[in-house]
Amino acid sequence: MKKRYFFSQASEIQEHLFLIREVGGRSVGAIRQHGNIRLLLNYCPHAGAPICKGVLTPALLCGPDQTLALDPLRQQLRCPWHGWEFDLESGRPAFESKMRLAFLAHELEGEEVFVWINRLSE
Ligand code: FES
User: Fold this and answer.
1) Where are the domains of the chain?
2) Best mutation site among 42, 84, 99 for ligand 1, i.e. most ligand atoms within 8 A of its Cβ?
3) In angstroms, what is the span from residue 78 Cα to ligand 1's centroid?
4) Which of 26, 30, 79, 112 is most buried, with most CB under 10 Å away?
5) What confidence score (pLDDT) does residue 122 get?
6) What kind and span of H or E run contains 117?
7) What sign has the CA pseudo-torsion 86, 107, 11, 119?
8) Of ligand 1's atoms, which has the minimum distance to the CA of residue 54?
9) How far apart, in whole angstroms, are the C-alpha atoms of residue 81 and residue 13?
10) Above 70 in pLDDT, residue 3?
11) 63 to each of 43, 58, 60, 93, how far by Cα in Å?
12) Neighbours of 93 (CB within 10 A)
């Protein structure tokens, strides 16, 4: 069963840098993307690495003429253990797979950010 937990003040969550907290027995990361707050489990779907400690890079765009360019509007998160890259918008890896980053629902109440999460022990 999901429960709502206080995560942080909204002003603590920044662009380009994960804020990582233990919430409900789980490690959770939060980041801003173009001003919007996103929260996800700090857990790589491949083998469980702390994915929010990975490196953020611009995503690659493939143009109609097959040229590659950096997309400044989209970011990828590279896992610190095996280097798999996940699109931070969709949660999908850079290759065909059913694995996804686990984004979490959250709510803002004034300046306070709350996250909905399944307790690990439930
Ligand atoms: S644990 Fe993340 S790529 Fe292997």
Assistant:
1) 1-43+102-122, 51-99
2) 84
3) 9
4) 30
5) 47
6) strand 112-118
7) negative
8) 2
9) 24
10) yes
11) 32, 15, 10, 19
12) 20
Tell how far CA 55 is from the center of its chain. Answer: 11
Comparing CA positions, the residue from 46, 73, 48 lying closest to residue 61 is 73
**Strand order across the beta sheet in which 19-23 lies:** 19-23, 26-33, 36-41, 103-104
Q: Give per-residue pLDDT as tens, 30-62.
A: 999 989 999 999 999 999 999 999 999 988 777
- Residue ranges lining ligand 1, Cβ < 6 Å: 44, 46-47, 49, 79, 81-82, 84
Q: Which CATH architecture has domain 1-43+102-122?
A: Single Sheet (2.20)
* Distance, CA of 71 to CA of 65 (rounded, Å): 16
Tens digit of pLDDT for each residue in 55-104?
Answer: 999 887 777 888 888 887 889 999 999 999 999 999 999 888 899 999 99
The pLDDT tens digits for 10-25 are 999 999 899 999 999 9
Please give the distance, rounded to the nearest whole angstrom, from the Cα atom of residue 83 to the centre of ligand 1. Answer: 6
Distance from residue 62's CA to the centre of ligand 1 (Å): 25
